[in-house]
Amino acid sequence: MARKSLTTSLRNLRVTAVPFLVLLSLHAVIGSGHDYHDALRKSILFFEGQRSGKLPPDQRVKWRRDSALHDGSTVGRDLTGGYYDAGDNIKFGFPMAFTTTLLSWSIIDFGRNMGPELKNAVKAVKWATDYLLKVTAVPDVVYVQVGDAYSDHNCWERPEDMDTLRSAYKIDGSHPGSDVAGETAAALAAASIVFRSRDPAYSRLLLNRAARVFDFADRHRGAYSGSLRSAVCPFYCDVNGYQDELLWGAVWLHKASRRRRYREYVVKNEVILHAGDTINEFGWDNKHAGINVLISKEVLMGRAEYFESFKQNADDFICSILPGISHPQVQYSPGGLIFKAGGSNMQHVTSLSFLLLAYSSYLSHANKVVPCGETTASPALLKQLAKRQVTSILSCSPLTRE
């Protein structure tokens, strides 16, 4: 397989492995003839294979060795650690932060279903957050990438042997990147919930840093692909804009801190930051559906009527992807697999399926359903739709055939 096609496939896998991981963790809920335990283990193990830096003694992927031990030396910072992207030796901060946010959300909502793999999932989060703390150590600066994508993509080599450029790229007050900074704040805030009872001191550190990074993202607004176009485009160029990441970061800070300022920020900026736009999109570049589903839990629990419009957006999202009445942007294969135009379709399948399961759980606890015209979307229906996607992903089943 050519380097480009393999890299694209692996990039898709790494960015979407988290929601897929959660789908696997729900074997007890959705049931199947597949070995979900083994698939879950391998999904988390994949993260260990992507580790950069000095590897820990309990590293399970034994063929991987220490690598990129001097990252950041060109700028006088320690930027070692984190995860490589796909089949590359680049560390792209934007998708890495999104992956961290989703893995944290997975643990928060479904960790009880992960069994013995929960501890490894938590370690995967910490491997990412330790790195995110390094890249945000200087106030009003975020290092968003280590490595030159062009030289790396022209040289196929394992990270232990790489001799390509390890350039460090940053955003700051003069070169804004509200998208990547907002996502980084979201990742740190979500992870602070994961460690709240496991390591309270570390949790407080994550939350305080999340607040500082979010303030920077909000004060210095702009897209990082505008500031660093030659480095990040066309690889993780922000097409959707930075507004959704600001709202996404504020929602996670609200959830993690319960501070009034973040609740008021979300309410005040709902329209300004376009919470109701592209409601059936969710991925590293577009957080709209995730924003609406995440915050709707509070409405369904009867605790936040001021977020009611977000719940309406979440209901509209559900209706927009139901088979038979789905939005023109969402189609289904003859076998029932979600299809959205563009590349990396499994990114859409796994991310949207994760939201289906999360919303199904919220609806079930509130004893609610979603009215979609003549159709009613029950929690069971949403679970069944997600199950259908998982079955298609795990095997070449009749679901993907004509």
From TrEMBL:
Keywords: Carbohydrate metabolism, Cellulose degradation, Glycosidase, Hydrolase, Polysaccharide degradation, Signal. Residues 1-31 form the signal peptide. It catalyses: Endohydrolysis of (1->4)-beta-D-glucosidic linkages in cellulose, lichenin and cereal beta-D-glucans. GO terms for biological process: cellulose catabolic process. Coiled coil: none annotated. Its EC number is 3.2.1.4. Gene3D superfamilies: 1.50.10.10. PANTHER family: ENDO-1,4-BETA-GLUCANASE. Belongs to the glycosyl hydrolase 9 (cellulase E) family. This is cellulase.
